[in-house]
Design goal:
With 443 residues, this protein is an all-alpha fold. Helix content is 77%, strand content 0%.
Length: 443
């Protein structure tokens, strides 16, 4: 096996493992319906993986510095077995335990891959760049891949298709000599890791909340939403490749943070519902990811002794940031949705009263709409306006009323997501603070 093929397989493993931090986002409604749990409970399918990965990353890195090949093989096997258990889970409790095991396997696989990439690439700095790009691309493509798989093959396929891929990735470790690193690891790059944590917390809105707004809020199919959010990873890859290496890391980091924060703020200020309105903000966020995440990780890892250990610190910082973002943004979104639902009900009532349908029908229509709202509230989903009109004739007056009610619902959803997006933007901009504080910290 050539070094290039081996490096490609190692990068594929890193990208696949880190894609699991976001890949189930669009599958959550199906998982919720199958296991009949609450919205708060089903969110742990996301949170548990990221939390366990954050906690496991540094210990895994210390194991990997002594036996990277062994740790990579163990991590790959654990990750593959846990993925199989997720896809075949008979209950939500089993799924949650398997997701935690996936987090442990991902931590072992990803940190060990950094050291193995150094062996195949023959250069620590080049290995760090490959490791960073693979991780960023995997995390950014996660929602898109998950959405397409969920709609075409069901949510279980998200996990089942990973098993043969991980087993193929294991080939990268075959006949690869291992090495032991005995030199002291040194302290982690505190400011770079703090900035990674804050920026990753803000990017939760782009990787998780955006796809939820597209699917559960605006009614796009998971596949369509998955394709729609590929704008970000494409922009991230383009930015990482096109920006000259002569540009300093400080410039890439600061400009990337500003672009990502600005894109998140733009998502919080959308003038109306519609996928096209999200494209310019996604481009800003994607370019920001390509500039800032890669430069921050390189600053925290490249050129430092025991690079694999510092890779573990960056991995822990990134996924601790994801957990922070989920913990902060989820309750804000829930509160905003409840508040805006009441506004939408009042606006919808006014829409019915002002419509041109027969006066005697208005009360019956209003009651049917309220019944649909109560049904949706009990099911933990947004109401389907058209459901209240399925048994009524499709006259111009009714079509106009349905369009008006749907517009009110779209406005309410868009407004509800505004506050979490703006909070996420503030979290991303906060990453500038540790970078300013660390301008005297040695690289």
């Amino acid at each position: 096996m050539t070094p290039r093929v081996r490096s490609a397989l190692l990068g594929l493993g890193v990208g696949l493992a880190l894609a699991d931090s976001s890949i189930v986002t669009l599958a959550l409604p199906e998982i919720l319906a199958e296991f009949d749990v609450s919205i708060t409970t089903v969110a742990w399918v996301l949170t548990s993986f990221n939390l366990v990965l954050a906690v496991s990353a540094v210990p895994a890195a210390y194991f990997a510095r002594r036996a990277p090949r062994v740790v990579f093989v163990v991590g790959s096997v654990v990750f593959a077995a846990a993925s199989l258990a997720c896809g075949l889970a008979p209950s939500f409790e089993v799924l949650l335990v398997a997701r935690c095991a996936q987090g442990v396997g991902a931590a072992l696989l990803v940190v060990a891959a950094l050291d193995l990439l150094s062996l195949t690439a023959g250069d620590d700095a080049r290995a760090a760049r490959m490791w960073v790009v693979a991780g960023v691309l995997g995390a950014a493509l996660g929602p898109a891949a998950g959405g397409i798989l969920t709609e075409t093959l069901g949510w279980e396929s998200i996990f089942l298709v990973q098993v043969p891929v991980v087993l193929a990735v294991l080939l990268a470790a075959s006949r690869l000599a291992s090495r032991r690193l005995e030199a002291p690891a040194g302290r982690p790059h505190l400011t770079a890791n703090a900035a990674l944590l804050l920026l990753s917390g803000g990017l939760v809105a782009a990787l998780f909340l955006l796809v939820l707004m597209l699917v559960d809020g605006w009614g796009l199919s998971p596949a369509a939403a998955g394709i729609g959010v590929t704008v970000m990873p494409l922009a991230a890859v383009a930015a990482a490749r096109l920006v000259p290496t002569s540009v300093s890391s400080a410039t890439r980091i600061s400009s990337g943070i500003v672009l990502a924060g600005g894109g998140l703020a733009a998502l919080g200020l959308l003038p109306r519902a519609g996928w096209a309105w999200t494209v310019p903000p996604q481009l800003l966020v994607g370019v920001g990811i390509g500039l800032a995440l890669s430069a921050l990780t390189e600053r925290a890892v490249a050129g430092r002794s025991a690079q694999v250990v510092h890779g573990g610190w960056t991995l822990a910082a990134r996924h601790a940031g994801v957990v922070l973002g989920l913990v902060l943004l989820a309750p804000v979104l829930t509160t905003a949705l409840d508040r805006n639902e009441d506004r939408a009900v009042r606006a919808g009532a006014a829409e019915v009263l002002d419509s041109e349908i027969a006066a005697l029908d208005k009360l019956r229509v209003a009651q049917d709409v309220l019944d649909e709202i109560e049904r949706a509230r009990g099911a933990g989903e947004l109401p389907r306006v058209a459901a209240a009109f399925e048994e009524r004739s499709a006259t111009d007056e009714y079509r106009a009323l349905v369009a008006g009610l749907q517009d009110q619902l779209d406005r309410a959803v868009t407004d509800a997501f505004s506050t979490p997006f703006l909070l996420a933007a503030a979290l991303a901009f906060a990453a500038l603070v540790p970078m300013w504080l660390g301008r005297w910290e040695p690289l």
